[in-house]
Amino acid sequence: MKAETNINELEAKKQREIMERLKIRLSRKSEELGRPLTYNSVCFGCQMNAKDSEKLEGILETIGYVKTDSEEADFLIMNTCTVRENANLRVYGRLGQLKKYKKKNTDMMIALCGCMMQESLVVEKIKQSYRHVDIIFGTHNVFKLAELIEKKLDSEGMVIDIWDGTTEIVEDLPSDRKYNFKCGVNIMFGCNNFCSYCIVPYVRGRERSRKPEDIISEIKSLVADGVSEVMLLGQNVNSYGRNLEKPITFAELLERVEQIDGLMRIRFMTSHPKDLSDELIAVMAKSSKICKHLHLPMQSGSTKVLSDMNRRYTKEEYLTLVDKIRKAVPDISLTTDIIVGFPTETEADFEETLDVVRRVRFDSAFTFIYSKRTGTPAASMEAAATEKEVKARFDRLLNEVQDIAKETCKRFEGSIMEVLVEGLDEQDESLLTGRLSNNLLVHFPGEKELVGSFQNVKLVESKGFYYMGEIS
Ligand code: SAH
Ligand code: SF4
Ligand code: F3S
After folding, report:
1. pLDDT tens across 268-308, in order?
2. Atom of ligand 3 nearest to the CA of 44
3. Before 270, cis peptide (omega within 30)?
4. Angle at Cα 471 formed by Cα 465 and Cα 472, nearest 5°?
5. Probe target for ligand 3 pocket from 200, 207, 236, with the most ligand atoms within 8 Å of CB
6. Of 33, 165, 320, 394, which has the most beta carbons under 10 Å away?
7. Residues 141, 160: contact at Cβ < 8 Å?
8. 6 pLDDT exceeds 70?
9. For range 24-30, the mean pLDDT
10. What rounded mean pLDDT belongs to the chain?
11. What angle in degrees, to the nearest 10, is found between the helix axes of 315-328 and 347-360?
12. Beta bridge partners of 434
């Protein structure tokens, strides 16, 4: 819609003007102090949060802050996640620790944003018990960071700006990319699926797709800037484009992205099994750029539990889908998410999950113990198993998943495959780390000048979840 575009352009312009003002103001402060002003940024949660953090860091760098790994920074921002309880506990723990730095540096500013802040109970708790926090905002107004900082500089007390939802997608603001050669690209925001255990739809709002033209032009400019791999991001990429004025499918979007010259690899996350179309499988099968990896969260192998979870597929449908994908893309790597201990899960249901794990043989799986999220339908369901039983199931599942992953990883041992070199090996700096199309990592000797390039590497030895290799 034209009108909406104008509002967004105006908003972006306004924010850029505020950034200019702040830049001058903060450079005076830095001169006074005789040192650069620093910021520390921490991000919890998923790829979508990571993408938001790149935007936040882009704004902070634009107004003159310099990044530091130290918590003793002039500006500290925590982008929070609330998908499971332990994500929240980490934030409170860290907030407590920060008090001492603020005492030392009274000009220090602490900002909180992200999914946790979309919960009113959380904000109440922070207002009462963590009064050293300066700025709180949510998931819908990340683009406003500069405005909120300016407001804080001009006022006493906490600045709080949380939106319930939004129809706005504000583009064209700075972003500080973590890697030069690969980048996440939002194709949609929010989620409409309301899986009964999940808080994401409540904190990220309704599903909104970006226009394909905007996505394509962002990717083109990333490619011009040296990016060769993109990860298209959304909570359920398979329902992309349905609500656009001119509807388009995710498969059609992929075909358009594929045509971008200079772009070498395309990844996407996350696919909901209920919306994964034959059209998408066909596009993946014929593509030369879409990576041989599909993350397909199954959550549970029990049709009854899946129904209670409101996932809208059965065990058999999931298995059939996996067969179809494997037939079309034979060497694809499949990964998944599994929740153990959903309230209605019995031992027999859990056995169904193990059964699917054994049949599909995932390349890897993220396993989670169910965490009760206030306000979701599952929160009021009674638990069928004790905590101890659930923990025992979790351990059994983890063992099974890891044993299978070790074996499946081995299947490429001895072959030569192309990697995108991502950086120095974190454990041993004489080695480089590269990522295969199927998402596995390979460590191999090489010069750091190769970072960002594609190399053919022999997968000499499988180490279970990664390979040791050599350039071939
Ligand atoms: N949109 C993605 C997942 C987003 S959350 C999808 O639908 O697949 C990432 C993972 O966290 C989920 O796949 C699920 O396995 C897990 N998760 C979400 N809510 C949870 C909860 N309340 N307790 C435990 N795990 C949860
Ligand atoms: Fe949560 Fe389900 Fe949406 Fe994924 S699809 S974000 S699990 S509600
Ligand atoms: Fe967490 Fe929000 Fe992502 S709750 S998993 S950061 S969408």
Report:
1. 999 999 999 999 999 999 999 999 999 999 999 999 999 99
2. 6
3. yes
4. 115
5. 200
6. 394
7. no
8. no
9. 97
10. 95
11. 10
12. 421, 442
Q: Are 231 and 216 in contact (CB under 8 A)?
A: no
Question: Which atom number of ligand 2 is nearest to the Cα of residue 235?
Answer: 6
Strand-strand pairing, 454-462 and 466-471? antiparallel
- Per-residue pLDDT of 134-143, as tens digits, reads 999 999 999 9
Residue type, 420: L
Q: Which residues pair with 186 in a beta bridge?
A: 233
Assign 255 to helix, strand or coil. helix
**Entry pTM:** 0.95
All residues at 6 or more sequence positions from 221 whose CB lies less than 8 Å from its CB, including other chains = none
What DSSP string runs through 293-357? EEE---B-S-HHHHHHTT----HHHHHHHHHHHHHHSTT-EEEEEEEE--TT--HHHHHHHHHHH
> How many angstroms separate the Cα of 383 from the Cα of each of 23, 228, 299, 370, 376?
54, 47, 17, 10, 15
**Which residue from 115, 206, 371 has its CB within 8 A of the most atoms of ligand 3, so it is best to mutate?**
115
Token couple for 232: 């298209």
| Dist. CA 267–CA 278, nearest whole Å | 18
Q: How many residues does the chain have?
A: 472
Instruction: Give the tens place of pLDDT for each residue, 147-195.
Output: 999 999 999 999 999 999 887 787 778 888 889 999 999 999 999 999 9
For the chain, give the percent of residues with pLDDT over 90: 93
Q: Parallel, antiparallel, or unpaired: how do β-strands 66-67 and 441-445 relate?
A: unpaired
Pocket test residue of 83, 188, 196, 345 for ligand 1, highest count of atoms within 8 A of CB: 83
Residue type at 470 in one-letter notation: E
| 80, 113 contact by CB (below 8 A) | yes
Cα 129 from Cα 96, distance rounded (Å): 9
Ligand 1 pocket list (CB less than 6 A): 83-84, 197-198, 200, 235-236, 270, 272, 297, 299, 337, 339, 368, 370-371, 373
- Give the per-residue pLDDT at 7: 60
